[in-house]
Amino acid sequence: MKKITKETYLNWYEEMLFWRKFEDKLAQVYIQQKVRGFLHLYNGQEAILAGSLHAMDLSKDKMITAYRNHVQPIGMGVDPKRVMAELYGKGTGTSQGLGGSMHIFSKEKGFYGGHGIVGGQIPLGAGMAFGDKYNKTGAVTLCYFGDGAARQGSLHETFNMAMLWKLPVVFCVENNGYAMGTSVARTANHEDIWKLGLGYEMPCGPVDAMNPVAVAEAMDEAIERARRGDGPTFLELKTYRYRGHSMSDAQHYRTKDEVAEYQKIDPITQVKEVILEKGYATEEEIDEMGKNVKKRVAECEKFAEESPFPDVNVMYDVVYDQEDYPFIPHRL
Ligand SMILES: Cc1ncc(C[n+]2csc(CCOP(=O)(O)OP(=O)(O)O)c2C)c(N)n1
Ligand SMILES: [Mg+2]
């Protein structure tokens, strides 16, 4: 694995803080109704992305995930201003403002969405890996989904075929304890989701996903396995989301104390503690990083605010269009 150095820790700290503050800003502008529709935030789960990016080869590896998808494309190199603009529904957004929160996408940077159908991305991720195996690109796909999605039948069909064909994919369940408001304990006979891999003899196991080092190590082993042609791995990334399922979640299913317990092992705080302990930076330098993050978020907000909405005709460029289709004329 690439060494985890002082630079790694400093980068992790600043980037995780940026993702956190970017999402906090989204929550704020959502309440002001500048961002509409659904909004699912990633606060608390940032170590998953930080650890994964460390282990990936960003020149070719790919990522696909569910609807909690604003910060992953940023991590993979998409301009955060364009992600914020997409959420505002602006023409400068990653999908010209037509996709919105759940549908960030960038083929150029290897980020394949952004999927609102729970578990829909599991077979799609395997399909991407099939393409890479077929075309011998050497790329690996990281396919993320929630604990709720892990109970979909499509997971089992996909696991079976991915193992049969030894596809270069890492299946990652982000177990944050709840599927909307339903706890893992209430949905299955056992809570060790990683054990679903055993039935397919797929290498699998649990990972402390509040810690980017643990994620990077597990991910590195899984990616290397996939890259050398030995097939998929199933990782249960044990994490926690501080905010509700979406902005409309009243969170009656858990206590504030439970959230506070997890905040004690917050990934950003854990990284900050290592930085201070090892003398990688002083408190003042850390404050400076915080200020820089604030500035970066403000730039994204300004860009999104000032961008124009897409021209109304744009929406007809992305729907099926056939001259003799028997509908009323749909060109404006
Ligand atoms: C096929 C399908 N069924 C139901 C829904 C409604 N739904 C959206 S998210 C969700 C829960 C998913 O749980 P999990 O994957 O753990 O996600 P989390 O709440 O942690 O984001 C459900 C049932 C959906 N979007 N798609
Ligand atoms: Mg969940």
TrEMBL record:
<keyword id="KW-0670">Pyruvate</keyword>
<feature type="domain" description="Dehydrogenase E1 component">
    <location>
        <begin position="15"/>
        <end position="312"/>
    </location>
</feature>
<dbReference type="InterPro" id="IPR001017">
    <property type="entry name" value="DH_E1"/>
</dbReference>
<keyword id="KW-0786">Thiamine pyrophosphate</keyword>
<keyword id="KW-0560">Oxidoreductase</keyword>
<dbReference type="GO" id="GO:0004739">
    <property type="term" value="F:pyruvate dehydrogenase (acetyl-transferring) activity"/>
</dbReference>
<comment type="function">
    <text>The pyruvate dehydrogenase complex catalyzes the overall conversion of pyruvate to acetyl-CoA and CO(2).</text>
</comment>
<dbReference type="InterPro" id="IPR050642">
    <property type="entry name" value="PDH_E1_Alpha_Subunit"/>
</dbReference>
<dbReference type="Pfam" id="PF00676">
    <property type="entry name" value="E1_dh"/>
</dbReference>
<comment type="subunit">
    <text>Heterodimer of an alpha and a beta chain.</text>
</comment>
<protein>
    <recommendedName>
        <fullName>Pyruvate dehydrogenase E1 component subunit alpha</fullName>
        <ecNumber>1.2.4.1</ecNumber>
    </recommendedName>
</protein>
<dbReference type="InterPro" id="IPR029061">
    <property type="entry name" value="THDP-binding"/>
</dbReference>
<dbReference type="InterPro" id="IPR017597">
    <property type="entry name" value="Pyrv_DH_E1_asu_subgrp-y"/>
</dbReference>
<dbReference type="GO" id="GO:0006086">
    <property type="term" value="P:pyruvate decarboxylation to acetyl-CoA"/>
</dbReference>
